[in-house]
Amino acid sequence: MMNISSRQRHILEILLREPEGITVGKIAEEVQVSSRTVHRELKELEKLIKRYDLIMEKKAGMGLLIQGKKEKREELKQALFESTPIEYTPAERKTFILCTLLESAEPVKIISLAHDLKVTPATISNDLDQLDEWVKQFHLELIRRRGYGIEISGSEASKRKAISALIFENMEESQLLGLLKENIQNKSLQTMNTASERLLNLIPKEKLVAIENALRHLSDLLPYPLADSAYIGLVIHLSLAMERMAKGEKIAIEPNYLKELEHTPEFQAAKQIVAQMESYFGISFPKDEIGYVTMHLRGAKLRLSQTGVLEDPNAELTAIATNLIHICEDKLGVNLSEDRSLLQDLIAHLEPAIHRMKQNMKIRNPLLDKIKEDYPDLFQVVKQAATMAFPRLKVPDEEIGYLVMHIGSSLERTLRAKKRFRVLIVCSSGIGSSKLLASRLQSAIPDIQVQRNASVFELDDIDDHEYDFIISTIPIPSKNPGDYLIVSPMLTKRDIEKIHSFLKGYTPSSDVKKSQAPPADSLDQLESIHSALGHAIQLMKDFHLLKIENQGMSLEEILFQACETLECLGVISQSEPVVQQLLEREKLGGLGIPDTKLGLFHCRSDHVTRLSLTLYSLSEPFPLKSMDEGTIEIDKILLMLSPASAPKEAIKILSEISALLIEPKTRRILETDDAAIIQQYFTQSLYRFCFEKMDDKEWSG
């Protein structure tokens, strides 16, 4: 077991999170200690990571980074994940205390908290003094009586708001996204600190996943899509509602306001959501709970549809947004009225924003401090404009921050020039943050063309051929780290340098042409494309990732086992002659791919019934002659088979698979040992290959 302090654990998490390096100053800023303290802790951590055959290296211009083999880094991550800190930071202590008090239906004794947190009762008392103000902002009261204990008193709605705020303050949005995405295998939880683990007791993971499954058709129930942050909030809200209802805690909404809510489209959507929850979990939601879900939906941030057109346009909102733009124009001396995108973005943002302000609902803006720091003048301009545009409403700084994103994005949009690299931007803070990042990117790096802004939940629906690479503000659990760049939503100088460095070694793909002049032999060309697509589809549907226990086996025995499996699947009519062909091919020249652990075996045979692509994972490394006449240790075999009489389109498809193997990205994908990811990668690659060859006359030659 790894025995380290919470501070050491935090520093180690940061270093593992930043593979390209981070300065001591930035570590100190995040951990909230001095640089001298960080240096002192690093001396202890250097000894620790040596036990995992890792070293801490300092590189000029990059800072500190942990160097070593990938498997050793993962081993260290796992040990860190399983470790228990021997002390708690003040922030962690306060999170534990709030979790305990908000969860408990009875008063809690100070001595009990002190024992659990391994501190003195005086320390707990001091923490409670500091927590009193935090509790009050949710209209709750921290009650402390000698002989009685400590409890948090207030309405159920206020307690739920406090719990939600506590979760969002202590857990990254990417961690919460990780809990909700089924295909990530909990990778985002592996660096979660102890405070976050305690928070998960308030929203059990299995309940979150079950709710997310029950909400798969949420987009069909609403007239607009939800931003990721709003979707996460809804899932957490429903989870808390069930947990609290199970303990007898009930929400109460003012009757007249509840009647108003019943006439909104969101109430009808909330009823259907609740009906699915009742069916899924076998519990009953009272009408007040449905109203509370409605309030959440009405206060959620809207996102434009892919067409950029808002449904059910609201004339009043348009007038308000236009007025806000005109006021900003006058103060900035810049023409913003011609920017149609700005008007649409503001209308999309203002409907839920106005509702939030009217209901005095709190909103969290994680970028607020950074916006104030980087855009102080623009922040003041927009704040004055908002005061004039909304004379009867109190506009909090959090809302001003989001408006600054929209106005700032419009200001920078005029600096755009023609770009070369097609980029997909992934953000989760709403429309404003992604649009602002897009504008900053394109003004800072003229060679970049932002093709589209997307959320993590939209990635599965976007074809890879639409962009060259991804720039994201959050980790993307379903993607390999090498497949995208992570930057700050505000695009720091360090981010720009990182992107420039990436672009120096990157060759952009050519755009897929949407309209092309048909060749003279159009029918033959169409038939060839149809044939190629058919073979590609069949190949991908039949793709398998299989394991072979090869301890003590020869190459011939390994190939026999591989082919016998395919014979059972009907791909091969007789295994023995196919194995002999594969062995003969291996004698002609090495089949191991240099600098990898992969062997590529292939042949065309009368005993093969259809195209086949199968990846075999070996239980033990096996020595194989490589294509550069050396010898490598392989742990995977990619077996490609084709009938002897296969048409040229089929052979071209297999040849494209072979060509992909020289690309570093392909090797990384194969190392995942995830059949779905590998199949998706090959499928997308073949899709691009087929359509990029539409004007290639060799298809029909």
UniProtKB/TrEMBL annotation:
One of its GO terms (molecular function) is protein-N(PI)-phosphohistidine-sugar phosphotransferase activity. PROSITE patterns: PRD_2, PTS_EIIA_TYPE_2, PTS_EIIB_TYPE_2. Residues 537-685 form the PTS EIIA type-2 domain. The lineage of its organism: Bacteria, Bacillati, Bacillota, Bacilli, Bacillales. One of its GO terms (biological process) is regulation of DNA-templated transcription. Residues 202-307, 312-417 form the PRD domain. The keyword Zinc does not apply. Pfam families: HTH_11, Mga, PRD, PTS_EIIA_2, PTS_IIB. Residues 421-511 form the PTS EIIB type-2 domain. This is Mannitol operon transcriptional antiterminator. Keywords: Activator, Repeat, Transcription, Transcription regulation, Transferase. It comes from the Bacteria.
